[in-house]
Specification:
The chain is mostly helical. It has four helices and no strands. Helix 3 packs antiparallel against helix 4.
Length: 98
């Protein structure tokens, strides 16, 4: 899990909210994500960062706190969107069986 304490939360209500959550709460939320959603989020972050294959490249990424906070926010929004779509897919499948 990432260290939220190192990020500057000035005027960022979401980051302030996250910092006030217990590590157990964050771990529980992270564990509730399906493997499919985890794969989509991982691929999204890798695409944002431009990850190269580690067997051929030694990549180092440097950023500042504000950009990292933006990346985390983007990943969270992607996660919420993917979760909503999973719920919708499950509902559609349930209604199709009726």
């Amino acid at each position: 899990m990432f260290n939220l304490g190192e990020l500057n939360s000035s005027n960022n209500l979401l980051l302030d909210y996250l910092k006030n959550q217990s590590p157990e709460t964050l771990a529980t939320v992270a564990q509730s994500v399906s493997p499919e959603a985890q794969q989509i989020i991982t691929q999204n972050i890798q695409n944002l960062l431009g990850i190269l294959p580690p067997q051929h490249f030694n990549v180092s990424i440097t950023t500042d706190r504000e950009n990292l906070a933006g990346l985390i926010g983007s990943a969270m929004m992607t996660g919420y969107f993917i979760r909503q779509m999973e719920t919708r897919m499950q509902l559609d499948r349930s209604l199709d069986t009726l």
